[in-house]
Design goal:
Two copies of one chain form a homodimer. By secondary structure, chain A is α+β, with helices and mostly antiparallel strands. In chain A, strands 3-4-7-9-8-13-14-12-11-10 form a ten-stranded antiparallel sheet, sandwiched between helices. Chain A has a three-stranded mixed sheet with strand order 1-2-15. In chain A, helix 1 crosses helix 4 and helix 4 crosses helix 6. The interface between A and B is large, with 76 and 76 residues. Strand 1 of chain A pairs antiparallel with strand 6 of chain B.
Chain lengths: 337, 337
């Protein structure tokens, strides 16, 4: 029998319809991705630096900006959705049609010079460098007072919204706090007002105590498949210390996160045979970096199913796998690695 | 330059990044769908009635239930996400993990016996029969007092979440009012309290007056690509009369809707070369069928782009086509048809 569950952070319902599910091995991707170490037309490959806008940051062993010698390279997105060159001026017809010029930053973090060295296959050190780059760019861009929220994310594969194979993530800084974020904040604020506690700390502690949805626990981090997962193998990585801002991560926490992230992504890669996925860093709006009612975290969504008309019409997601079962599978793989 | 726009019904922002766009003809689907008029393994084809659960409704020219002779057939979804056989009993651990047994109805409306006669290719009469079937099922299922909201939708193609080609739509009746719906209602209530008017009537009137995003207007219906469209060619069909419940449609309005729907779907089919799409009927919750602040309507989403990490992380959609441009293209095609 299926079950409806309410997400305590959004109040949105999901339907856990695990009997509709394929067996776990049927979630495995069937076709192998074509991989080659270099592509002459890839704008992110070594030697093709002139294909991209000028870099804004790099970690390099040698060379000058925009030439080979880099390990990680950050460039403005050539097809940026937003531009820092404009003022976020609002237009308003008085009632219904509110607009704003498309101010913002849209950057690409090229994670490696190697075309086929994808994140789940990288070493801890390589992942650590990427996380440090995220933190560096975050800290710099939040200084622009027009920026209200910074979203760092990673799309991998066609089903996750990208056809660019070369390992990369993206950063978008927007001049508004989206309703999507506001809504979660309102729920968390109400919980805080009612109980005096942080909803996300309570949730992490409850998942830890329940245990069956926990994938991995280390000194600083808890990884679990949440009670009201929207999709099979939805994975949250949450710090065990209350902290609302991603960039507040300490130099002790960061290397451990690199290790956790490597193990989780490698586990998903092994279990699901290199699935398409999205990874998102959820961090507080810039003006709310020290809030007592939110904990920043990472969410990973393997794209194994497609949200359709029902999800669009109701906001209710049908999840064909129980998070208790997927957590068990991933926990076993991660423990064995 | 891109532009941010706020959806007046949800307060969510979208980014209209039309310069990122492909040219209109690049939205056209490249590969042709394989079509055949009958499939021996298709559970919805004529003569295969025994592959489905027993029908709950049919429009038939001859024959007895669950045998050939039907034109439209309604059956419970064999892989139903929800079941009417259970009581929507709530479980609650006191705070964070709220659940409910998976009560609900999940039906499939098999729109035609012909495997390859898809909705955009049907006659007005065939579409009228489908709309009448929707209305009939809606009216019946809303009598179950456990039902709070009925969502009727249609998925077409892999990118829209289905691999079943045989023309069909679905109905899901849920025992909750989802937050997704509540939130829109709160915005509409605020607008009503502030102005004394219905937000959706104001929006329809404003789109009609502005005109550039209007695709088609008839005596009873207005079709437009909304100001804050989330995706290219997002199309709304809205009644010109205030009515919050889909099933309140009169016998005068219904045939005209069949005509409008045929012209719009045929136009999208021609312009985009048989695109995958979702179609959703947004109607008020059962207990709110006569509300003064909501207008039921149909939304159509051709699935031409894939929401990715940024959308998941921010709720802000990047739309690579301006609704003014797509409305112009569709308007021309529809006018010529």
């Amino acid at each position: 029998m299926s079950e409806m569950r309410q997400d305590p952070t959004t109040k949105e319902w999901v339907i856990i319809a695990a009997e509709r599910s394929r067996r776990p091995d049927e979630f495995r991707q069937q076709s192998k991705r074509e991989r080659k170490s270099y592509s002459v037309t890839c704008p992110f490959c070594l030697g093709n630096e002139h294909f991209t806008p000028l870099e804004t940051f790099a970690i390099r062993d040698s060379g000058s900006p925009n030439t080979p010698g880099w390990r990680i390279r950050v460039v403005p997105n050539k097809f940026a959705a937003l531009s820092p060159q404009v003022i976020p001026r609002r237009s308003d017809d008085g009632l219904l049609f509110r607009g704003m010029e498309g101010f913002g930053y849209h950057e690409v973090i090229i994670e490696t010079p190697h075309h086929d060295r994808d994140l789940p296959l990288m070493s801890e050190d390589e992942i650590l460098n990427i996380l440090e780059t995220y933190r560096h760019r975050y800290k710099l861009l939040r200084e622009d007072e027009r920026v209200k929220l910074i979203v760092i994310f990673r799309n991998y594969g066609e089903r996750a919204g990208t056809s660019l194979l070369h390992p990369h993530s993206q950063l978008v800084a927007v001049p508004v706090i989206p309703f999507h974020t506001r809504q979660k904040y309102e729920e968390a604020t109400r919980h805080y007002d009612d109980t005096g506690r942080c909803l996300y700390c309570d949730l992490r502690n409850a998942e830890r105590e329940y245990g069956k949805r926990v994938v991995l626990e280390t000194g600083h981090w808890l990884v679990f498949h949440p009670f009201a997962s929207q999709a099979p193998f939805e994975t949250w990585i949450v710090p065990k210390r209350h902290a609302s801002c991603f960039a507040s991560m300490t130099n002790a926490e960061l290397p451990e996160l690199a290790s956790v992230l490597r193990r989780i992504l490698h586990g998903l890669h092994t279990l699901l045979n290199d699935p398409d996925f999205n990874m998102i860093i959820h961090t507080a709006p810039v003006e709310d970096e020290n809030t007592p009612y939110f904990v920043w975290h990472i969410e990973i969504y393997p794209r194994l199913t497609t949200p359709a008309g029902f999800e669009l019409g109701s906001g209710i997601f049908i999840n064909v796998a129980a998070p208790e079962e997927t957590a068990h599978l991933l926990r076993e793989i991660v423990a064995a690695s």
